[in-house]
Design brief:
Elements: E1 2-8, H1 15-31, E2 36-38, H2 50-53, H3 64-76, E3 79-88, E4 94-101, E5 107-112, E6 118-120, E7 126-128, E8 141-145, E9 148-152, H4 161-169, E10 174-176, H5 183-201, E11 204-207, E12 211-213, E13 219-221, E14 225-227, E15 233-236, E16 243-249, H6 252-260, H7 263-266
Parallel strand pairs: 1-2, 2-3, 9-10, 10-11
Antiparallel strand pairs: 1-16, 3-4, 4-5, 6-7, 8-9, 11-14, 12-13, 14-15
Length: about 270
């Protein structure tokens, strides 16, 4: 069995406070026997007021949350999938960027969110991620993790099967889906989408999520999940409060499922 830890957060507008919560979780995850920790999307700063957030969104070499996580990962010898941080790109745009930090404190991978959350919900919520953030363009996987090959995605990416098809073709053993899902979309779609993507890729899906009432006025759905390659939910952290959860994964399950339902091997290109 491989033990992982999942941090469910209620991130706020103070990067220092968020960094402290992440570092505490790294320490607790290691003490709990985890080999890897997963955190949510925008774990370093969650603030829909972009004018207020702007002074805190800096290039990654100046990001205090990333620096703190790198030092804590090195100190505790724990690999960390840092769900995402808002970082300045140096061209006047921002990136919603995931980082994988190895147990020696080195950045093993970076992934910029490909699909921008530009929606008008019936609840009245309006989001225009592309107004400030530049979309990523590359599919990213990390080979040497305690789970094998890990595919990286962020939140709204879950709605785009082509990305998960690409990760499945890369034979990812697990896929990270850090998120800050809205409550209306989460209530109706969160579990369905996470389970479907795990089944399609025949891989574990690990979805660390934001939860609850945030300082900037938003509400997020929570329910951080771990789903196995058959689509079975192994962990659901609920939608009430932040916390640290653990899941023990049988990596042999990946081969079992792929042998029973070899959908990746049976895949054929569809002519347009």
């Amino acid at each position: 069995m491989t033990r992982i830890a999942i941090l469910q957060m209620t991130s706020g507008i103070d990067p220092h406070a968020n960094a402290r919560a992440i570092c505490d979780a790294i320490s607790a995850a290691r003490e709990g026997g985890a080999q890897m920790l997963f955190t949510p999307e925008m774990c370093g700063l969650l603030d829909r007021d972009r004018s207020r957030a702007s002074p805190k969104i800096v290039q990654e070499e100046d990001n205090e949350v990333l620096d703190a996580a790198v030092k804590a990962a090195r100190q505790h010898g724990l690999m960390v999938a840092l769900g995402s941080l808002a970082v300045a790109r140096g061209d006047g745009r921002w990136a919603n960027r995931s980082f994988v930090i190895d147990a020696d404190g080195r950045i093993a991978a970076r992934y910029d969110k490909i699909h921008m959350f530009d929606v008008e919900l019936a609840s009245g919520e309006s989001w225009r991620e592309s107004a400030a953030y530049a979309a990523g363009e590359e599919v990213v996987t990390v080979e040497d993790t305690p789970l094998g090959r890990l595919g990286l995605t962020i939140c709204y990416d879950i709605r785009f099967p082509a990305l998960f098809d690409a990760l499945g073709q890369e034979r990812c053993d697990a896929i990270a889906v850090p998120a800050a899902f809205t409550v209306p979309t989460g209530r109706d779609h969160w579990h369905v989408l996470q389970r479907a993507r795990a089944i399609e890729a025949s891989a574990f899906v690990i979805a660390a999520a934001q939860v609850g009432e945030h300082e900037d006025g938003r509400r997020t759905y929570g329910h951080s999940l771990v789903v196995d390659p058959w689509g079975e939910v192994l962990l659901d952290m609920g939608g009430d409060k932040p916390g640290l959860g653990f899941a023990d994964l049988d990596l042999g399950r990946i081969a079992e499922v792929r042998n029973q339902l070899p959908s990746l091997a049976n895949r054929r290109a569809i002519a347009k």
